[in-house]
Fold this sequence. Notes:
Layout: H1 6-16, H2 21-28, H3 32-40, H4 45-62
Helix pairs in contact: 1-4, 2-3, 2-4
Amino acid sequence: MINFNSNKMLKILFIDKGITQKMLANELGITEFTLCRWLRKELPSDKKGAILAAIGKLATERGV
Length: 64
């Protein structure tokens, strides 16, 4: 059985939408390195919400 944490699901979501870590980090106003560090451990709900909002905005801009 594969156990996905929500961070892995976030990664799958933004990759599926054609969004790079660089694009996502820029939208969040952080560096790629910071985004990578955030995704290593389970995120608090406020950061998850910010990432989901940024993915939604970028996906809309890309027409995905």
